[in-house]
Structure prediction request, 258 residues.
Amino acid sequence: MIQTPVLRVSGVRKSYRHVEALRGVDLEVQPAEVHALLGDNGAGKSTLLKILAGAVVPDFGTIEVQGKKVAFQRPADAQAAGIETVYQDLALAPTLSPGENVFLGREVLRQGALGKLGFLDRKAMSARATQELARLGARTPSSTVEVEALSGGQKQAVAVARASIWGTALIMLDEPTAALGVAQTEQVLNLVRRLRDERGISVLLISHNLPDVFAVADRATVLRLGERVLTSPIADVTTNDLIAAMTGGNDAPGRKQS
Prediction:
């Protein structure tokens, strides 16, 4: 049975004056798949990420989410379509608790008159955030601790938990293990595995770290100079294949779509 891709990008182009950031890029992400998006600096990864997050409008091309054509004009449009993005800076409020961060901008109000007056249901938000973190296999010292007191891996877990609650179609992770130690990196990679294996959520993983890619990705797409030069199951390529594709080396494999 052929499944409808969670995400299908066709012929997407984006130019900034005389610079062509994307030159007709195609990309498909399948259900419950971790798909790595790779490329050297200037390859177009960040531009494509921003387009899919609704922060940048493409010049040409089409985007489909779960089989429906979409046209994002702002980040709220992407979120409404079920796409959540965890940027490298995580966008967490340091003085708020994990629960308050998970529901930041989507706060739960208390029932009755207090809710009408704008009082927040902090207990409900904390309980839901704790539940989601537990489902992802992540723990924080306390549900009331400020996020700035957490480790790098715990902060990433809070950001991923927030995305997993609201991202019904796709979660995009931008360099999620950057600047993390070995133990924290493994914690984050386990989060990615759980999103796919236990939650059935598709993940678009943007990373320069090839060991991370080989550890969790099902397929990989390589961009170079704004074009897609390779899409392949991760089992069918080597580290040298991906590096050659990113740099345009002589050993780069031919274009393939699997």
User: Anything to note?
Assistant: The chain has a mean pLDDT of 88. Residues 182-197 form the longest helix (16 residues). The beta strands are 7-16, 19-29, 34-38, 60-65, 68-70, 83-86, 170-174, 202-206, 219-224, 227-233.
